[in-house]
Amino acid sequence: FHLSLPPLRAPFDSSIRFEPQVRTGGICIGRLEPLKNQLALIAAWDTARYGPLHIVGDPSPNHQSYAAKCRKLGLPKGIVFLPHQSPEKLLTLLRTKKVHVLLSSYETTGLATVEALANGCQAVVSDHSIQQEIFNQHVHFAKTGASTSIKQAIESALHDESDHSAWAREKFNAASIAAHIEQLYKGLL
After folding, report:
1. Are 48 and 158 in contact (CB under 8 A)?
2. How confident is the model over 6-23, as a mean pLDDT?
3. How far is the C-alpha of 159 from the C-alpha of 174, rounded, in Å?
4. What does DSSP say about strands 140-142 and 80-82: parallel, antiparallel, or unpaired?
C-alpha cells in the first residue's frame, strides 16, 4: 500500500508546457502556523544568496502572534508576505519561482508541494517519513529544526535543474488516483 494524495485543483492543466524562463527565489504556500515552520524557513532564508521569498497564507485567529513573529523576522530581510490568494494568482507566482518550501512538521497531503512540482518548481519539504514515501527523489528534504539542513536543502533545490512537472501531473491527476483506488479495492475483494 502506498500513500496517495487528493487530485490537484481545477486550475491544474496536464497539457501545460513551460516556456523557458528565469525562475528566481522561493515561495511558501500554507497557513501561517507553527506546524508549518515558516519561522524556521525565514530564519534560514538568505535573500542575497537565494533571491526573493514570498510567504503566502493567512494565520488562523489563534496564530496571530506567530504571524507577527514571522513578519518581525522576515520584513527586514525583504521577505514578502501575502494573504490567501486566488488559484490563478498562485499559479502565476508558482510559475516564476524556482523553489517551493513547506517545512511542515506534520503534513499528510502535501497538495501545495504537488501543485508547485506540477508547475515547474523544485520543492523542499520536511524529512517526515510520510513526505519521503510520497515524494521520494522528486523533492529535497530538510530537518525542520536544523537551520543548516534547511539551508542545504534550499541550496540543493536552487541548483537542481530536474523537471518533475510531468511526474506530478501524471501521478496526482484525478483519473490516475481513481484508477489507483480501484486497483486497491480489487486487490481487497
Report:
1. no
2. 57
3. 31
4. unpaired
**Confidence category of residue 22, pLDDT binned at 50, 70, 90:** confident
Please say if the pLDDT value at position 143 is more than 90.
Answer: yes
One-character DSSP codes across 145-188: T-HHHHHHHHHHHHH-----HHHHHHHTSHHHHHHHHHHHHHHH
Residue 110: what pLDDT? 72
Q: What secondary structure letter does DSSP report for 59?
A: B
d(CA 49, CA 78): 13
The chain-wide mean pLDDT, for the chain, equals 87
Cα-based angle 96, 101, 104 (whole degrees, multiple of 5): 150
DSSP one-letter string for 15-55: T--PPP----SEEEES-BSGGGTHHHHHHH--HHHH--EEE
Contact 136, 129 (CB under 8 A): no
76 to 29, 34, 69, 73, 79: CA distances (angstroms): 20, 20, 12, 7, 7
Predicted TM-score (pTM) of this structure: 0.86
